Structures are given as structure tokens and as C-alpha cells.
Amino acid sequence: MGSSEALGTLLLLSCLWGGSLAAQDLPRKEADPNPPKVQAIPFEAWVWRHKGPPLSKEFALRLKAMGFSGVSVDLDENPKRAVEKGFAFYLDHAAGKGILHLRDEVFQEAWQRYQRSRSRKDLVRPHPLLAPKTRKELFEGLRRRVERALPYGPRWISLEDEISTTRFINPIDFCFAPSTLKAWVPWLRARYGTPERLAAAWLRDIPSFERVVPATTDEVRAREAVPLGFPANLADWNARLAFMDDLLAKTVGELCRACARLAPGLPVGIEGCQAPSAFGGYDYSKLLPKLSAVEAYDIGGTRELVRSLMRPGTLRFETLFPPRKGEEPSLAVARLWDLYVHGLNGAILWSAGTLFPEGDPARPSAFARSLSKALLGMRRLPSLAGARSLGQQVVLLESQTSVRAHWMLDSLEDGRTWLRRFGSYEAAHSTSMAARRSWIRLLQDLGYAFRFISEADLAAGNWRG
Predict the structure, then answer these.
(1) Quick check: is 32 in a domain?
(2) 4-57 residue pLDDT tens
(3) 43 near 345, Cβ under 8 Å?
(4) Residue 320 belongs to what H/E stretch?
(5) 164-216, pLDDT tens digit by residue?
(6) Domain for residue 336, yes or no?
(7) I need a labelling partner for 380 at 20 to 30 A (CA). Which of 25, 117, 201, 318 fits?
(8) SS3 at position 179
(9) Residue 130 and residue 127: Cα distance in Å, rounded?
């Protein structure tokens, strides 16, 4: 560990179990006296349009004078009007709304139906991702919206907000649609090669791939005597969830490639990304290589995970919300500076209605005025947008397999109510999120640079130095 050649890169298996670390065991790296030069990219602040003033030249001039970059143009809205009024814009929901992100009423209907029946027939995801009708709607809608926006110069494109195989990271065993199950056997064959290798991994007799039916969470919990005992074998359950993670990443990747063909060089990605969990599809080692723009909620250490695993040059944003009731008003400004000094490319500001609650561009809220002062101040400083961390001495293994195991162990005593472990509950009670967050805070407090690596990185040896 003390080699001066690499100055010691310490690998921590952080996301399976906790551990201990002595500061004196880690060598400190001196600052590089000649760091590589990074092209200055301005920090951006995009106003997400929800309520607020109508588009007007007065509104555009006010935003520009206050240091805001521009606005979102949403879904099937024609950006011509925004540009004619003087707004810069990014295209939001380019792949539509309600498919990659299931609307609450649609999800709740399916969730409640399965909660009552516990039948596989009720585990068909609304808008199955591989169904021809779903794919046609996604790709034709994307083409229509991008082609309409391109003449007006969008800065970047967001496919959708808060995508998921379920809804957020809410647990349900989607998807048993025929189109999804049709892809299951080829996926097993590609992953395991032969039935014999699958049998060895799953510790059971597997006569053929074609006879393997995905196991539901209820079935696995019953087989493993959860909550009466410690689960001994979650291999088949883990595989089914990995299959769904792959399916979401594949769909997003295909949409990004389709967008790149329509708009070469234009950053494209997704917004509202969640913390990794057993459900939802947020295996960042699979999602992030597809994206050139990403906005993720900083829940459970997600910010540092995205920083570590994203492609170089990816635009990275976070949503900035107004202070909650009872919070110090200056906290929003502190959060904005926090994004700036951590090298993010910008913020998505929620929202036009909170920045201009009276609908009058001449009457911004205190929230808007405080952000404006900070944004204008940032222009006088060297830009840190897109900056990368140097001298990373510690790497932490992010294991999606371990995240799933954590979820099952966390839910040991839930019984049939495991379906109610919604994202808001997980944010406060997930042990995998707590472990990741704890390692981040510990290393930050000790002053060590670090990054996360994936299981594939570890297998390939991409963690040294």
C-alpha cells in the first residue's frame, strides 16, 4: 500500500458490509504542481418551467440579467416561440412522458392489483419496454420532437425524467409481459453459456434454458424461509433483477444512439435519476456509459457514484429546490455553491413558479434573487464546471449484486408488506445507501480523494493508480 510509484490506491469493498479505516494507513498524495488544463465551461442554471410567467421577451431578458441560462422546452411544445422570445433552451421529455416514467395513477393501479392477487399475470409492466407498440411510441416520438427542436438549437436533450423499470425504486416484480419473457432465455444463455453453468450458479438442476421461469420476490422469500431465517441462495432472484436492469439500460442506450443519429454531437441523457436499489433499474455501471448528460438526485451518495462512473465529458446536473418550510433561506445558495465547487456542469432550478410566484418577471422571489446574486458572482471566478478530481488514492467497489442482497436483508421482517418499501422509505432506511454515504463522508472528512468502481472495473483491473 505504501508504494511511491502509485502512491497507493486502496480498494475498499464498501457497499457490502461496513468496515474500519485508520487514517495513518493511507498515504497522502501531494498536489500536482502542474495540473492539466481544463477548458473553461460556464456553470449553467436551467429553469424548469412549471407555472411561473408566460414566455415573453421581458421574461427572457430578466432571466439573462439574473444569470440564469435558459428554460426547459417540454414534450410536444414547439421551441420556436421560446427562441423567438430570446430564450436558450434544453429539450425535456424528448422520448415522451408516461412510458420510461410510469405515471402515479397507472403504477398504483398495477401495484394494488398485484398486492391483492400476488399472481404473475398481474406483473405485466404498463408499457412493457420490449413491446412493439411501446418501442414504436418511444422512437417515433423521439424522432418527431428532436427533428422539430433541432432548427432552434437546443443546448442538450433529456429523454425523460425519473425513469424506472417500476416507478422510482418502488418494489414490484415487473415485467412478465410476453415480449419481456421472450428476451429472458437469450439473456440467460448469453450470461451463463450452458445450462450446466447456470445450474452450478443457482445450485439446482437446470435441464434447459427454455424451462427456466423467472422467480418472483414472493416465491424466493417463501423458499428461503424469509423472515424466519437468513436467505441462503438469492442467485435466481438477483439474475432476474439484473435482467431488468440490463433491459432498461439497453432501451436508454438505443434511444441515445437514435438521438445521436438525428443530432450528432448534442449531449443527450436522462434526469431525475434515483439511488441504486434492488428495483428500478439504477445500475449506474450499465446506465452511465450510454449517456452524455445526466441529472441525478443526490440520495444515498448518488452524486459521487455518478461522478466516478460516468463517461468523461458527460454533462452532470442536479436539481436545486427552494428551501423547505423552516429551513434557513440561505441554504439554497449554499447548495448552489456546493454544486459549483464539486465540478457539476450546472443546476436544474425548481421551478419557474418558485422563482417568479406572482407570474411577473419583474417580481422575482427572494429565492430567485439570492440565486441570482450567487450565479453572477460565479462568473467572476474560474469555472469549475466539468472539473475532475485528481490524485484519487482510494477506490470503493459499487456492487449492484450487494445492493440487492442488502435490500433483501433489510426487508427480512417485512413479510408480505415488502411491497411497501417505497423510495422515500428506502432513502431513510436502506443499509446499502447508508454504507455508501458513510464511506463518502468518512473519506471526505479525512481529506482523501476517492472514486467508485464497478464490478466490471474490478474484474478488468481498472482500479489501480
Answers:
(1) no
(2) 223 334 556 544 443 333 333 333 444 444 444 444 579 999 999 999 999 999
(3) yes
(4) strand 315-320
(5) 999 999 999 999 999 999 999 999 999 999 999 999 999 999 999 999 999 99
(6) yes
(7) 318
(8) helix
(9) 9
Cβ pair 16, 402 in contact under 8 A = yes
DSSP label at 430? Answer: -
SS3 329: coil
Residue 10 located in a structural domain: no
Cell of 174: 415487473
Residues 6+ apart with CB under 8 A from 336: 45, 320, 347, 371, 374, 375
Q: Reduce the DSSP state of residue 454 to 3 states and report it.
A: strand
Closest CA to 274 of 250, 294, 260: 294
The reported pTM is: 0.91
Q: Which strand ranges, in their side-by-side order, compose the sheet holding 450-454?
A: 10-12, 394-398, 450-454
Q: Are 367 and 322 in contact (CB under 8 A)?
A: yes
* Domain containing residue 320: 41-387
Q: How far is CA 379 from CA 36, 44, 306, in A?
A: 22, 10, 26
- Structural domain includes residue 224: yes
In residues, how long is the chain?
465
The total number of structural domains that make up the chain: 1
Of 214, 206, 204, 286, nearest to 245 by C-alpha is: 286
d(CA 298, CA 295): 9
Amino acid at 41: I
The domain that holds 366 is classified in CATH as 3.20.20.80
